[in-house]
Each structure stands twice: as C-alpha cells, then as structure tokens.
Design goal:
Oligomer: single chain
Number of strands: 15
Structural class: alpha/beta
CATH topology of the largest domain: Rossmann fold
Bound molecules: adenine
Radius of gyration: 22 Å
C-alpha cells in the first residue's frame, strides 16, 4: 500500500463509506467528468501544488479528483468547522492521496492549524471558499504569499472581503472571483441555496413549511432563491432588505418587504442570507414568538448576533443535533438556533446537490486551468472569470443533458453584430 499523505482526519477506517458517497455524487456530475477526461490527457497542472480551503464534501472530492487527474498535487482543509464529512475526508487521504486536514466540529485552534497545514505545503494556486487561505496569506503568513501564482475565490462574501483588501493594502497575487460567473449564480445561488437551505431547516426540525411565516433577510441571489422556494412550499414569506434596488425587486416579485423590527414578532422561521453582520440582534430576539427558528444561509456565523442571544437567554440546552433552544422571558419564549448560526445547508444537510456542484466546480476547475496559462500576465488584483469559460460550461452541461440548441444563421450573426439597427 502506498504511503499516506500528511493528514489530520477523524477516522481513516471511514474511507469505504466515503468512497460510496463520492461515487454517488460523481454519477451526477457529468460536466466535471468530461473535464476530468480532458485533464487526464492534457495534464494542465503537472506536478503543480494546489491548496484548497473548501467544504469537505463528496462533491468537493469529485473536484479534487478532477484536478488530480490534471496532475495537481493537492492539499485541502475545511472552509467551515461544521461542514466536513468525515467519511469523505478519510476517502481523500486513503484512496486519493490528498493531504487532508479537516474534522467535522473542529475547534477554532485546530481549524486554523489546518489552514496553516495547507499553506505549509506551499501551494502555487489557492482555491478558497470564504477567503481563509488568502486572508492568512495577507496576515500571519504574509511571507508565504510570495510563492503563490494566483488564486480563486468561490463565494460572493469572500469576493466582498477581497475587494476590501484590494482597495486597502492591496492583494499580493491575482485572484479570480468566481461568484459572478453566470453558471454559478444559476446553479449555486438559485437552485443550490434555495433547496439546500430549506433542506437543512426541515431535516433539523421537521417543521411543516406550508402555512409557516418565513422571514428572509436579504434578497440577493441566495435570499431570492430561499424566498421563492419557501413560497413554493406554501409559506407566507416576508423579506427584509437594506438595498433599495433589491427591496424593489422583492416587492415586484410579490413579497411584502418590511423592516426587521416589524417582521420579528411575525416570523416562525428566520433565514439570514445577507453576507453582512448583526442582521438578527437582541432587539429582534426580544420581539420574537415562542418557537421561532433562527437559521443562517450566509457564509459566516456573523449574521445572527449569538452573543446578544446568549446574553438575553435565561437557559440554554441542545434539544436535537445542532438545534439549540434558548429560553427568553418571562413569560417563557423558546428560540431555536440552528447550526450555531453557521451555514445551515452544510451543517444540517449535505449542502448543494451534486448537479449544482457539477457546474460550480466546473467553474473552479476551468478557472484553475485558465490561471495556469494567464496568471503571470495578470496584475495582483481581483479579476472576473472570463465569459468564455461560462459559455463553455453551459455548452458542456447542455451536451451532458442531450439538449440541442439552434445555431444563428450568418444573417442573424451579422444583424447582432451590426450598428445598423434598421437594416
Ligand atoms: N457549498 C455548498 N454546497 C456544497 C457542497 N455540496 N460541496 C462543497 N461546497 C458546497
């Protein structure tokens, strides 16, 4: 048996269970399979070190397998302490030879040590989901940024942080922001977050959504998806916003938009999806009904003010896995916090389905390949994914589904390219 790569995972014996999960996911990820075949022939990453901070799920294992087929030497840590699947982590070590540093439920110190363990392997390309690698390389591990060629960032929250970094002290190397990719918005935000957020809430609580009042904070790509899915399941949905354009969009989509102070006493379920902090605060908790459920769909655990909730609570207990009951009052009101305010879809369900991650991770795979070719020509700044990559992924996805589309005629092509609108 080949020597195992460096690792820190919960239990290597879980690898066969991980294999079954990864096989299940990979059967539903045909676009990545096509890319993997090409990578295996062209080897775009031959002996190149890629370091990733991603949710360690079956779908992520399929992405890592694709990069490995292209010749990459891989290391991975978690991008959230609660999202790791320990079976998959074991599989990555034992069967894929990926240096894996991730344990579900790891404490903050260990989480950080795992980020460092990936950086210790001196990646040439960083693949981030929430900026942990980039942030560390612009802080305590600044010196190690010198050896990095380029990076990718998966999330819109991460892109916001990178924009702030780029506009402040500047980025040490070029980073591609993938969250703007059209295929990713379509798959990840609209279909992935919409379904998997509600999946997490239902799995954790078994709450009937029909007839429930669901308050969705934020009407960006994710909030819009959650609001529409909840409405489809029969919930009464209220939206809160701070952005006038998004609020207007919600109104025109038929959702009542109200300030959180008005929504707080009405909601049965609250879902934060803003990318901002302190969206639900002590003032809101004080107004909420007995039994209100609090869930976060945003990248970080800052949207629900946990310190404020703990301060107000007279008592606290865990009543189901990852469901914490906080008792406020008198009179007693019990608020139910899911997944400690972390990403509910990954902590309490399996995250986005493989069909969704097929598109999102195809974006990742092709973005890494593009960076290998072009990074040395890019200034150290935040860059958008080239549109051609989006189009290529959509083409591959349609091909995998057997969907045919029309070709424009020569006359049509010329008409679209012409300024002569009348002709
Ligand atoms: N982000 C959301 N869902 C995910 C999944 N299933 N795997 C990896 N990252 C994700």
């Amino acid at each position: 048996m080949a020597a195992l790569p460096p690792h820190d995972v919960a239990d290597l014996e879980l690898a066969p269970l991980g294999r079954a999960r990864v096989e299940w996911a990979s059967r539903q990820m045909p676009v990545l399979a096509t890319i993997r075949e090409r990578f295996a022939t062209e080897r775009p990453f031959a002996r190149m070190r890629i370091g990733a901070s991603l949710h360690v799920t079956a779908e992520t294992a399929v992405l890592l397998g694709t990069l490995a087929a292209g010749g990459a030497e891989l290391s991975v840590c978690a991008s959230n302490p609660l999202s790791t699947n320990d079976e998959v982590a074991a599989f990555l070590v034992v069967e894929e030879g990926v240096a894996t540093f991730a344990r579900r439920g790891e404490a903050p110190d260990r989480y950080l040590a795992h980020v460092d363990a990936v950086l210790d392997r001196r990646p040439l390309i960083t693949v981030d989901d929430g900026c942990d690698l980039v942030e560390r390389l612009h802080g305590a591990r600044e010196k190690d940024a010198e050896g990095v060629l380029a990076g990718t960032e998966d999330t819109s929250t991460g892109a916001l942080r990178l924009r702030a970094l780029a506009g402040g002290r500047g980025l040490a190397y070029p980073v591609l922001a993938l969250s703007g990719a059209a295929t990713r918005i379509l798959a990840d935000n609209r279909h992935g977050t919409g379904q998997s957020t509600l999946d997490g809430i239902v799995r954790a609580t078994n709450r009937l959504l029909a007839g429930a009042t669901v308050v969705v904070a934020g009407y960006g790509n994710c909030g819009r998806a959650v609001a529409n899915r909840a409405r489809g399941l029969g919930s009464v949905v209220l939206v809160t916003e701070i952005d006038p354009l998004k609020a207007l969009e919600a109104v025109m989509d038929g959702f009542p938009v109200v300030p959180m102070a008005r929504a707080a006493p009405l909601g049965d379920i609250f879902v934060t999806a803003t990318g901002n902090r302190d969206v639900l605060t002590a003032g809101d908790f004080e107004k909420m009904r007995d039994g209100a459920i609090l869930a976060n769909a945003g990248q970080f655990d800052v949207e629900i003010d946990l310190a404020g909730l703990r301060r107000l609570a007279r008592a606290h207990r865990r009543i189901r896995p990852m469901v914490d009951e906080y008792v406020l009052g008198p009179p007693d009101r019990r608020l139910l916090l899911l997944a400690e305010g972390r990403l509910v879809n990954l902590a309490l369900a399996d995250g986005h389905p493989p069909q969704v991650m097929d598109l999102s991770f195809s974006v990742q795979a092709l973005a890494c390949e593009w960076l290998v070719r072009h990074a040395s020509d890019l200034p150290p700044a935040l860059h958008a994914l080239p549109e051609a990559i989006d189009a290529e992924i959509a083409r591959l996805a349609l091909g995998a589904m057997g969907v045919l589309i029309d070709e424009p005629s020569e006359v049509q092509r010329r008409y679209l390219e012409s300024f002569d609108l009348g002709g």
